[in-house]
Records
---
Amino acid sequence: MRIATGCIGHETNTFSPVKTSIDNFKGGAYYIGEEIVAAFRQTSTITGGFIDSAEKLDMQLDPLLWTFATPSGTVEQTAYEILKAEFLDRLKRTGQIDGVLLDLHGAMVTEAIEDVEGDFIRAVREVVGPLPIVVTLDFHANITAEMAESADIIIGFDTYPHVDCYERGFEAAQLIFATIRGDIRPTMAYRQLPLLTSPPAQCTMKPLMSEVLKKLHALEVEAGVVTATLSMGFPFADIRDAGVSILVTTNGDEKLAEQCAAEFATYIWEMRDAFRVDLVSVEEAIQHANHSKGKPIVLAEGSDNPGGGGPCDGTTILRAFIEADVQDAVIAVIADAETVDSAISAGVGNRIELSVGGKTDRVHGDPVSLNGYVKTISDGTFVHKGPMGRGRVGNMGRTVVLKVGGVEVIVTEKRIQPYDAEVLRSVGIEPSDRKLIVLKSAVHFRADYTPIAHEILEVDTPGVHSPNLFSYDYQKLRHPIYPLDPTAEFR
Ligand SMILES: [Zn+2]
């Protein structure tokens, strides 16, 4: 049995002014053929799960192209066309195959296409005809009817932070195997809800969503049900289909699939009010820390989360910390290659006048002029040790730690979401020692930081990934949709 596999992946934040080009893919994660296996073998990733599952089942993988660009703004149409042509060309030349396993994200948008994955899966379908296509998607996929129609089975993550990527990849490979052998005949039902939720409310480590997932898992073991997916959607894409959707796959029982999907959708809809988030201002967070004996207090700055398209160079909190003379604090991270260059030229142990951050746009705060002490210089590489992507090598680019009063700022060359505590440890900072830790991450950091954090606060700063959905001017999103339109209905 031979299965073609690969990925063209991006989480597109259409509110970001930074366009995503072909260079962001080719200069990001970009692997061809056997390079894919070398990059993902023994990693807790989707494709890592494909590889192990295929080996166990004696299925041969035919890796074509795997590429993923760091989340950012709308993808240039030409970039997608180049990647799609490359993938399809390899698919056509691959010879005899029995199916296709796709490791996709589900929230990619180009200048011309709102539903890129729908377009891509359909294009793959046109090449392989009736062969099974099994697709994995992120928890933040904005799943469309087109995706559901073009794929035989879609499997989304069940966790946010995403700690089950490997398991979902493993499951997908098992299901394509069972489908090819004729052990199952997958029938998938799709429901979309008129509901938009923001990342902190989607976190499956919190009681609301952990209950929801328990119920989803109970559905998956019901007789006749093969797999079920709840996608909470990516709200920072102004497209018609952003938001929550449900997929239920049964073994050949269309009526059961439709019924289960409808029931689960109704269950989610009825709890729509619970998906609210409590945010604090930076000033409130500083005050709170001053009065708290415990440490560390983690401030999640989701609005500048590079994992969702934030520029990662926002300065709102840095400025407030300096003005308030905050002590024993670390900011992870500010991406600013110019500052890294200047600090490296100045050298470790020296002071330098700098203008830090705020260079991408005017939304996330202006550059901050400061006199910084160059404490550490690093090559910026580290190995993930937390539950997300354990074993994978992270690369922040050249990285420096600047000390400004009582604040240590980790300045990186590349945009990187600091969800793994190794980001701090790799530059000599033990997170459990600090009073205040600012993380440009909405939710993923909780996987590694929950055991060490005394407290976690969600901070309300302006940005393209703000948990406050009312701060966006949606133009293309379908209406009515809850909570933007409080009278939205679902039947
Ligand atoms: Zn995600």
---
Amino acid sequence: MNTTLLATAIVAALASAGAAAARADPAVVGLLAALAFAAITIWAGSAALALRAPDDCTEPRQRPAIAQPGNEPTLTRGGVFGRIWIFAIGAFGLATIVPIVSLGRRARVAVGTVWTAGARVVTEQGRPLRPDDIALGGVTTVFPEGHVGAQDAAALLIRVEDNAMLTNHAWAPRGNVAFSKICTHAGCPVAIYRHADYMLYCPCHQSQFSVLFGARPVAGPATRALPQLKLAIGPDGYLVARGDFSGPVGPDDWNRPA
Ligand code: FES
């Protein structure tokens, strides 16, 4: 019975560690861990009861045996029971450590948007834009031609001075620079641009992104820059994308493996 309980605790603890390593449902990991702890708790209780001396126990006093050469008593470690304990300690150690690994960040799956190389940049009304259509300091929401309203493709097109010290100057023809409109904190639309300090603001939790430095967050809870849309001037003189955004759009917990 005792050995069965201990073996059950070991198997459940190992199964819990394995489930955590395989990123199984947390409920499964928790249930297996609960089973392991329940089994070892019952085992410890029954072992303690077995060790308790009965009330009427009297121990006869004996003369200590005198060891003869070649007949000295030997100390043993409890045979199989002792070795099972080693497994139990290892199994519970694994069940404790492995779930900690799952606290790390999961790799994001890069899910693209409908922006492709050569796609013309158009307004919400579907009008293609030339490099001088936006006034200096102006901002407008843009989409790839043919995909107006595609939410994850929404971008903010901003016009800054052509000689502004942009981090990615080559991606901003004639001062036209574009970033994803979806805040990297919690996905709200970044809606406000202040040209005095080249700053984009998210109204939800007041994150601020520096346009000059690749929309890097400089205040608020966002920790990742708004992905940039690389722009060029097409052969017909209209603004076009050079491809998709420079990174995944939206908050870090979007587009993760389930
Ligand atoms: S969603 Fe933009 S700061 Fe929170």
---
Amino acid sequence: MNNKALAALTFDDGPNTSTTAQVLEVLKKYNVPGTFFLVGNNIDEQSARTALSAAEQGCELENHSLTHSAMSDMEESAIREELRVTDEKIKAVCGRTPQFFRPPYIAVSDKMHRCIDKTFICGLGCDDWDESVTVQQRIDRTLEQICDGVIILLHDAKGNDGTVKALDGIIPKMLEQGYEFVTVSELFRRKGKTPVKGEMYSVVE
Ligand SMILES: [Zn+2]
């Protein structure tokens, strides 16, 4: 029986060849996996290679929409298209269709919950999309919020060096505290929970 606390590191807004690649280097250094929520429109020939290397290093690629728009006011057909095209682009990269969806800006509506055939993943963030949040604040805010089963929400948008540096504080501290890092699907599996479609999770207990 393994009683280690579990945590999933997740990264939004990639892929890109710079910051995504730097995040992968840090994950590799500590031998931990991550889950990347990709924006379909950010997948091009170059960034697809970076995304593929993420998958090859044990990370999961999931869906963060096609255009990164707030989708809560969209028509059903537009919502479905955001999901479908991004699914196809991700499947073309890694051969696997995403199981999870992170809504841009965590904007959701009943319509989205009805017509998106995936489990919604939120997570606990440290506002790392905001440049004015320092590396130390990113580390401190994250470490203040963690608990067993936590999904940690970070961003690997191009140029977000602060989060690359913060990872070098967050990961070793959490390892020291006895956390084991897993992908989001592994988190559900290890907790013995079936991800429910249309529901949103920040912690898997
Ligand atoms: Zn985003």
---
Amino acid sequence: MDRNIKEKKCNDFENQKTVMNIEEWHNVVNDKLGISGGTIYSSSGSTGNSKSIIYTDDVMNAAVRRTKEFISLTPLLSNCKIAILWGYGLFPPASFYNRALSEMGNIVYPFGSGRNFPSELKATKLGEIKPKVIIGMPSYILRICNILKEKKLLEKVSEKLEFIITGGEVLTTFYRKTLEEEFGVKVFDHYGMLQAPMIAGECSEGKMHISKEYKSEVLMSDSKISEMGRGILLLSSEKAWFPLELERLNVEDNVILSKDKCSCGYETPTIKIIGRSNLKYKVRGQLVDFDELITRLNVLGFENKYFVEVKDFNNELIFHISNEISKEKFKEEVNKIISFTYFVESHEKIEFLLTNTGKIKRIIIRNN
Ligand SMILES: [Zn+2]
């Protein structure tokens, strides 16, 4: 890694190792690896702040290798039909899974998440192929599940299904329980598909194992760095971004890191994800977990029917909702999380701001 950057970023932590956030790391990567060519990916979080990063062939290959590592923690054998329900175009994780699973001898159906292949048609197709594994974002698999139920195809699709792999968003208890009950199979969650990328995968014991290619630590609330315990996950790796050495990437998620031996026999540390640390904002003295709020509202079917406006300058929180949904029902859910006075404005036609990948900006922060 570049000496200047290293020196500039030096801090008081024990052995003077750098801690970088994702954006800073992306800048280093784009600067140092961009010259060797690769695929640019622009991601956009719920806040709509876009982050671009270049994935070189070496980085892609390493991510495919880790995908295989996580798949090896599931009961998958080769020669299975697998439906991949995320990513349109060159969404990198779609490519990691396509390559990993086909190289392991499976037949992969890269159906994507809807833009190139309408969900209705996809549901019918799933009924025809009867996959052994379905891979996708929990919210999207749930949407497909509802379509399958309407079309009376759920039983047919579940017939040969052995398990589901989720990733790309927080797998809440609700999502896991609903998907496992509806499809009648176990869900294996994968974590950190884009940032590092491919950080951890669940084993048969339900523990989330960090890849053997990362050294993991946590940044505790007292700014100390620890080998285990609760804090923000930090990752270091010599392999993931070869030829660059990744040092203490702050992945902005709160976790509990454990080095206890897992009964599955796989010997890497495990994490329990507590939540995103970057979607929490202080409004009127209360720290609001917007990630949890958004998840709860989406689960109730309010997706694409609201956005939140946070007015920083006078500490106001306004929900803009479509008049198709009940204001009372909406407030009932919000009240479970927010205990201060907020506003809800109902609109006949709701004007959304979109991120550069076409997703709705759920949270709009205004500073003036
Ligand atoms: Zn395990």
